[in-house]
Amino acid sequence: xxxxxxxxxxxxMPDVDNLLTSFYQLDDEARKEVVDTIQLKLQYHRDPERxxxxxxxxxx
Length: 60
What we know:
- The chain is mainly alpha-helical.
- It contains 4 helices and no strands.
- It has helices at 4-8, 13-25, 28-45, 48-55.
């Protein structure tokens, strides 16, 4: 299992925590918009090395 700190780096954890906390507070419509925006961004801005790292995680 890969902890979030491994994926994002120790210094990024406050940002990750803030993103997750903010996402949790959104209503369902806004959450869908965020997910849709991420999917759109991934079409043009995916980091190949990070995409490979994700493939290494069981169940992802």
